[in-house]
Amino acid sequence: MNQFKKYFTLSYDDGLEQDKQTIALMKKYGIKGTFNLNSAMFGEKSNIKYFGTMGFENVDPSVVKRGLIKTGPANRIPADEIRQVYEGFELATHTAHHANMKKLSKEETEAELLRDREALSHYTDLPVVGHAFPYGSKSPSQIEVMRENGFLYGRGVRNAKGKGEDRFAFPENPLDFAPTCWHIDKNIKELFQEFLSITPTKGDMMFYMWGHGYEFDFDAMKKREILKTLEWMFDQVANNDSIIPCTNAEAFLDHAAAKR
Predict the structure, then answer these.
(1) CA 121 from centre of chain
(2) What is the dihedral of CA 131, 126, 182, 75, to 10 degrees?
């Protein structure tokens, strides 16, 4: 009898005001997920320059770009709202200052990670055990710091490779793994349909999608009706007993427990 599992989990970065609409939709369908926050930046207000579906630079809210380069809101949720907004969802580190870890020493890396974890622990009753690499940047020393300090997993930004079942294979290296997709990708609905259609025969599978809340406000994402796509996906998960909706940590813990 096939005992392999299929996990569905989400990961959103930066602690943005747009997370509130995402969370409302997740709660409607019983979807779980993880939010990766920068604790030294709570409440900061900015806009982000974007082209198409890609955001690339934070600017003062007063800056408004026209033409091909536009700006959208990228305001962070203030500290006094964090616990209420994210109640029941997992919080994970994203460094205190959204730091590019490749540019930091091991000591600076440790300070950014552990300061963030300590701060976030005051806003949640769940253990803070995960990390999302800002900019996808990482270094061997950062992985070492995470391992030494009991982190359970670390997520990059480049999509997982492979075809068919292999595309959704559960990560072999939890401290440095690739997500299934970024929610700005054009093919997420087709990719999810493929995930739905596959019965795992080689091992556990995971559909892991990540993004930033500000991307929901980009013109191209609105045109694609990304929120309608997410709602369709959530409805499919909610009505499919073969898929486990979970936080990032729950997926890794459950997978590890089953292997023992």
Answers:
(1) 18
(2) -90
Joined together, the tokens standing for residue 109 give: 């890396």
Domain-located, residue 212:
yes
Say if 48 falls within a structural domain.
no
CA distance 55 to 135: 12
SS3 113: helix
**Domain boundaries, position 174:** 6-41+78-259
Residue 50: inside a domain, yes or no?
no
Compute the distance between CA of residue 247 and CA of residue 241 in angstroms, rounded to an integer.
Answer: 17
pLDDT of the chain along its 260 residues, tens only? 468 999 999 999 999 999 999 999 999 999 999 999 999 999 999 999 999 999 999 999 888 888 899 999 999 999 999 999 999 999 999 999 999 999 899 999 999 999 999 999 999 999 999 999 999 999 898 999 999 999 999 999 999 999 999 999 999 999 999 999 999 999 999 999 999 999 999 999 999 999 999 999 999 999 999 999 999 999 999 999 999 999 999 999 999 998 77
Is 73 within the bounds of a domain?
no
**What is the b/e burial string over 91-108, where b = at least 16 CB atoms within 10 angstroms of the residue's CB?**
bbbbbbebbebeebeeee
In this structure, the strands spanning 47-51 and 33-37 are unpaired
Count up the domains in the chain and report the number: 1
Query: Is-contact 94 13, C-beta < 8 A?
Result: yes
Please tell me the pTM assigned to this model: 0.97
